[in-house]
Amino acid sequence: MNIILFGPPGAGKGTQATKVVKKFNLHKVSTGDLLREEIKNNTDLGNKIKSIMDRGSLISDNIINDLITKVISNKKFYNRLIFDGYPRNLKQGKNLDSQIKKYKQKISCVLSLNVDKESIIKRISGRQICVNCGLIFNEYYYPASSKNHSCDPKFLNKRSDDNKKTIINRFETYLNKTLPILDFYKEQNLFHQINGMAKIDQIFDEIYGIIASLET
Ligand code: AMP
C-alpha cells in the first residue's frame, strides 16, 4: 500500500503523515524534508535549493524525481510509502506513476486535505518544528507543552520559508501547478477529500477509516 497525502502548504500533511506512519508502519517520503537535508549538508546543490525554496517556488522536476526514484527502488520500503508534498505538478505525477509501475507497486489512495487560505496563512506563520524529534506544533492552535512534547523547548524551530510573503507564493504555486493533478487521480478513482479544517485527531480518524478499509 502506497499513499499520497495531498493539500496546500500548511494543510497538516506532515502531521497526519507522522500519525499514519506510526499506525500502519509506513515510511514517510517528504520531498521538502529531503531537500532541507540537502541544504543542511551545505552542498552547492543545497545552496541553490535554498534560494528557490525561500522564494516559495518549486525545485526542478529532475532533482525531485531523482530523490523519489531512490526511495521507490529501495526494497526496504517496498509498497510501504506515504508521500507528503509529492507530486507537486503533473510531470511529477506521471513520473511517480511510471516509477511505481516499474517497481511493481501501486498507489492505493490519494487523501486530499482541504483548508482555506486564511487558515493556511495562520497555520504556517505559527508553525514550529522540533528539530530533535520532528514533531510539529503551532503557536496559535497547538502549542508545545510538557503534555505533548518531551524534548527541551530550545529545539523548537521555525522554517525559513514560513513567512507571510513566501506563504502567498507557495499557495499560488499550489493552485496553479499542484491542484490540477487531482483530475489525474480522480480519473483513477483513487481520490478522497478530507476536511483539513477539523481537529487533528478527527482528521486522523477519517484517514484511519479510509486506510483501514483499503487493507481488508
Ligand atoms: P514542503 O516541506 O512540502 O512545504 O516544501 C517546502 C518547499 O520545498 C516547497 O515550497 C518547494 O520549494 C520545495 N519542494 C518540496 N517538495 C517539492 C516537490 N515535490 N517539487 C518541487 N519542489 C518541492
Describe the structure.
This protein is α/β, with parallel strands linked by helices and 216 residues long. It is built from nine helices and eight strands. The model has no long low-confidence stretch (mean pLDDT 94). Bound molecules: adenosine monophosphate (AMP). The site of adenosine monophosphate has 17 residues, from helix 2 and helix 3.
Low-confidence regions: none
Strand elements, count: 8
Order of helices and strands: EHEHHHEHEHEEEHHEH
**Strand arrangement across the biggest beta sheet:** 2-3-1-4-8
Distance between the termini: 11 Å
Strand content: 15-25%
Count, helices: 9
Ligands bound to this protein structure: adenosine monophosphate
The general outline is globular
Binned, the helix content reads 40-55%
Q: Main sheet, how many strands, which sense, barrel?
A: 5 strands, parallel
Question: What is the gist of this entry?
Answer:
The model has no long low-confidence stretch (mean pLDDT 94). The chain is built from nine helices and eight strands.
